[in-house]
Specification:
The protein is an alpha/beta fold. The chain has helices spanning 14-17, 20-25, 55-66, 84-91, 127-139, 190-199, 223-231, 241-251, 280-306; strands at residues 76-80, 96-97, 109-113, 116-122, 144-153, 162-172, 185-187, 207-215, 234-238, 254-263. It has one domain (55-264, 278-306): 3-Layer(aba) Sandwich (Rossmann fold). It has a five-stranded mixed beta barrel with strand order 5-9-8-6-10, surrounded by five helices.
C-alpha cells in the first residue's frame, strides 16, 4: 500500500495497472503504438500520419449508395449550430437543397445573399460533429468555412446579443487533441484575424475580438471554471471553435468562428434572446463582411505572389 504526502493511504489503480504479477507478465508496449495504460486522449499521437479513414472516401461510398453524381459545394459554406438561419431562409423561400451533397448526417442548403452563393448546414452542434462536417465540406470544394454559434457570456463586455470574433479557443474538448499536440488554445489563422480586424465595418455590425472556452459538456459549466475563464480574459463559452481551428491549422484551410453571445447560461429569465429574426439578420451581415475581408486578403496575397 502506498501513501500520499499527507500520510493517507492512496488507492491502488488495479483497473489501470493490474496486479504486480500481471504487470510483470505484460509485454512491453512499442514506442509507436497507443499506450492504454493512461488516458488515451492526452497520450502521444502520430500527428503527421495519414488517416486510414478519409472524408473523400466516405463521400465516394455515400454517393454510390445514394446514386448521386459527383459535384462541388459552394466555395463559401456556413455552419449554423442553432439552425436559426436555416429556419429563416427556408421560411422565406430563399434556401435550395444542394443536389449532390452526400453526407450521411446532414442536409446542405444553398442560398444567395449580396450576390454571394453560400452553402449552409444547420444544427451541427459540438466539436466532433463540426469537424466531421468540415472535413467533408473541404473534401467537396469548400474554400472558406464560417461558423456562427450561440454562446454564453463569460466577461460582460456588452449586453447580449453581440458578436465576438473568436481568435483563440480554450481546448476543453476532445477532438482538437487528435489534430494537434496538447496545448491550452487553438488559434484563428493570423492572416485571417488581421484581415477581419482591419477590414471590418463596425458601424454595420459591432465586433469584439477575443478568446472563447470550447467545452464538450455544456451542463458542466461550473462556477469555478467560469471564474477561471473570466480571470484569463475569456469572453464566451461555446462548443466547436477549438476543434475547428485545430483542424484548420493542420489542414491549412480557412475557417472563421464567431460567437453570437446571447445568454448568461440561463441564470435569469428572459435569456437567450438573439435579436431580429432570431439573429438571422445579424448573421447575414456577419457572413457578408467575412467574405469581403477574406476576398480582399486573397487578392492581396495573389498580388504579393506575382511580384
Amino acid at each position: 500500500m502506498t501513501t500520499t504526502p499527507s500520510g493517507a493511504e492512496a488507492p491502488l489503480e488495479a483497473d489501470a495497472t493490474g496486479s504486480p504479477q500481471e504487470t510483470q507478465d505484460r509485454p512491453a508496449v512499442a514506442a509507436n503504438t497507443a499506450d492504454f495504460e493512461r488516458a488515451p486522449l492526452l497520450s502521444p499521437k502520430a500527428y503527421t500520419a495519414s488517416s486510414t479513414f478519409t472524408a473523400a472516401n466516405l463521400l465516394r461510398e455515400a454517393r454510390r449508395q445514394k446514386e448521386l453524381s459527383a459535384g462541388s459545394v459552394p466555395a463559401v459554406c456556413v455552419l449554423d449550430p442553432d439552425g436559426d438561419l436555416v429556419d429563416f431562409l427556408q421560411a422565406s423561400g430563399r434556401a435550395t437543397l444542394h443536389p449532390t451533397w452526400a453526407c450521411y448526417h446532414t442536409t446542405l442548403l444553398t442560398f444567395v445573399d449580396g450576390g454571394q452563393t453560400y452553402g449552409l448546414i444547420g444544427r451541427v452542434v459540438g466539436a466532433p460533429f463540426a469537424v466531421l462536417v468540415a472535413e467533408e465540406l473541404f473534401a467537396s470544394g469548400c474554400a472558406l468555412l464560417i461558423s456562427v454559434t450561440s454562446a454564453g457570456q463569460i466577461v460582460a463586455t456588452a449586453a447580449p446579443p453581440y458578436i465576438v470574433l473568436i481568435d483563440r479557443a480554450l481546448r476543453d474538448e476532445g477532438t482538437s487533441y487528435h489534430y494537434l499536440p496538447p496545448a491550452p488554445y487553438s488559434h484563428l489563422q493570423p492572416s485571417l484575424r488581421q484581415a477581419l480586424h482591419t477590414g471590418w465595418n463596425a458601424t454595420q455590425v459591432p465586433l469584439q475580438i477575443g478568446a472563447s472556452w470550447t467545452t464538450d459538456a455544456p451542463f458542466r459549466e461550473t462556477a469555478d471554471m467560469i471564474t477561471a475563464c473570466r480571470t484569463n480574459g475569456i469572453l464566451a463559452v461555446e462548443m466547436e471553435a477549438a476543434a475547428l481551428y485545430a483542424f484548420a491549422t493542420v489542414a491549412g484551410h480557412a475557417i472563421v468562428c464567431f460567437a453570437l453571445v446571447t445568454n448568461h447560461m440561463a441564470q435569469m429569465e428572459g435569456d437567450f434572446e438573439k435579436g431580429e429574426q432570431a439573429g438571422s439578420a445579424t448573421m447575414l451581415q456577419v457572413l457578408g463582411q467575412t467574405v469581403r475581408c477574406w476576398q480582399q486578403q486573397r487578392h492581396t496575397d495573389t498580388r504579393k505572389a506575382m511580384r
